[in-house]
Amino acid sequence: MGLYIQRVVLVIGGQPAPGTWHLSPITYHLKVKYLFFLNGPEQYHLFKHTIRSLRANGKEVQLFAKQHDELEELLNNAGVPYISSSGKQRKTIKLGRIRGVFRKDVELFEYCKKNKPDMMIGTSTEIAHAGKLLGITSVNFVEDDLSIDRKFGVATYPFTDLILSPVSCDNGKWNKKTIFYHGYHKLAYLHPKRFRRKQQIAEKYVDPGKPFFLLRFENLNILPETSVRGLDQRLVNELIQNLEQRGNVYLYSEDEMPEAFEQYRLKINPDDLHQVLSCAHLVISDNDSMAVDAAILGTPTIRLSDFTGSLGALDELETKYGLSYSIPADKPRQVLATINTLFAIEDLRDTFAKRRMKMLKDKIDVSGFFIWFLLNYPESRTLMRKNPEMEFRFR
After folding, report:
1. Run of H or E including 284
2. Coil, strand, or helix at residue 171?
3. Residue 130's closest CA among 141, 142, 150, 114?
């Protein structure tokens, strides 16, 4: 671990640098180099406000990104320098091409050995392994229960220094290595302090004069025309016909889709997707990540999932706050009945807005908490162990 240079900021009046104002006095480290490992668009959104604030505080922040078209588009649109784990040069540094099962481990190890970050952050097995070998602190931000992805947990948790997770998450025997907080990953960028609905952005892609419904189904191009169990093209057609009686229907997919569905495709800059989600009257998705996004934004959401009843964050949004409805993936025809149930609710959008406000009252500004935690690490870890209620300063 690198040598830290510390100072104490005693706030007597006014505001110190962004991300440090929540505690007084505050100890934070001046000479810390942070490395964020980004596996996909979700990690970019999860950490984007934290990265900006760390840099605003004068910190050196490096981004190590997995090759992913949408992630690279987001980073390029934001003008953010990054290193690609594919071996391509991005802005400054060229990585060698290393093949094999442990290619990303080796790439990250070699990069860190040369550039010597003090702390690595991500949802990543690679940072745990490289950190353990090089004596660099690794902090993994995890939202899925251990039971959902046991292979990731077993490969990662023994080697990482610390785990940060929502209180709805169960990390099994590694709960003792976890700092829990009241929030969700998605609240890092969809909390009202971080996100404002701008209908004019949504109107670039949808007709503002009609209600609209967004459907997200992965692998539409390989769905069978009909099936005894599971989603099929016939059911997608039925959903479209049902919803078209009430408004406009849009299909969102990064992949190819059957020609008959192309007329419904939502062509959108990925930076604007959350604006469209926030304005939609209903979202139906077999993608759990998008279902959480929509639910947190207060948009009525139906999800088809093999993990119904077993994802902590989504289950809490459904059972405690009523912001999402889940359908087992092998019973997709229940979606039609659930649509009718939802539209029978009087003042549907106002009802869900109230449910969202109830959820937000129980949660914190997740990015604000992350910023404070990383700027003040390792003291922040000690403080949270002694007084977990400290997180509620980040409302």
Report:
1. strand 282-285
2. coil
3. 114
* Model confidence at 350: pLDDT above 70: yes
Mean pLDDT of 140-161: 94
Positions of CATH 3.40.50.2000 in the chain: 6-191+364-393, 199-362
Q: Which two tokens stand for residue 284?
A: 């139906």
Q: Residue 124's pLDDT is what?
A: 93
| CA–CA gap between residue 293 and residue 45 (Å, rounded) | 11
The candidate with the shortest Cα–Cα distance to 305, out of 281, 285, 283, is 285
Q: What is the mean pLDDT of the chain?
A: 86
What's the pLDDT tens digit per position in 79-89?
Answer: 989 998 754 43
pLDDT at 394 over 80: yes
Can you list the pairs that 199-207 forms with residues at least 24 positions away whose Cβ atoms lie under 8 Å? 199/275, 199/279, 201/272, 201/275, 201/276, 202/272, 202/275, 202/276, 202/278, 202/279, 204/272, 205/250, 205/266, 205/267, 205/268, 205/272, 205/276, 206/248, 206/250, 206/266, 206/276, 206/279, 207/248
Please state whether the peptide bond connecting residue 18 to the residue before it is cis, i.e. omega within 30 degrees of 0.
no
Q: Which residue has the tokens 């964020």?
A: 36
Q: What is the DSSP string of 349-373?
A: HHHHHHHHHHHHHH---HHHHHHHH
User: What one-letter code names the amino acid at 333?
Assistant: R
CATH number of 199-362: 3.40.50.2000
Residue 10 has pLDDT above 50, yes or no: no
Residues 395, 182: Cα–Cα separation, whole Å = 10
Distance, CA of 271 to CA of 277 (rounded, Å): 12
Model pLDDT for residues 222-261, shown as the tens digit of each residue = 555 554 445 678 888 999 999 999 999 999 987 888 888 9
What angle in degrees, to the nearest 10, is found between the helix axes of 69-78 and 41-56?
30
CATH code: domain 6-191+364-393 is: 3.40.50.2000
